[in-house]
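Q: My labmate handed me this sequence with no annotations at all. I'd like to see what the chain might look like in three dimensions before we decide whether it's worth expressing. Could you predict it?
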Amino acid sequence: LGHVELLRQNPAARRVYKMCQALPLLPANMIEEGYDHVVNFAQQAGILHLAVFLNYVHRVGITGVGVESFSVYKQRRRTNNDMESYHRKLRDTMNTAHPNVWVFTDGLRALEHEASVTLASLQRGLNAVRPPRPR
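A: Here is what I predict for the chain of 135 residues:
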């Protein structure tokens, strides 16, 4: 869409993008209202260059897949991409994007231990998934 330079130079444009990224975090019944707020903010800030992007968000996220599918509000898994989910878990375990070999090895050991505990719980008929953290 050619917005890289606009996002670098214009804090309001960056805010519009971030607001759009936050839309799926809203309850389904509030997504359209949230989208309207984003559009109003963009118009008031005079960011007309983002109209194509905003139309895309509406066409794909709101009318395309529908707000019920678009919303991840209070869902334990907020991604449908298992690789993305695992990468985040791996990164969080390592506490760095580029770990050295020792940190990486320790992180893999921690993940292996967690997997073995989960497997043992499942074999005993227990619930292997932690309840969601209170917010």
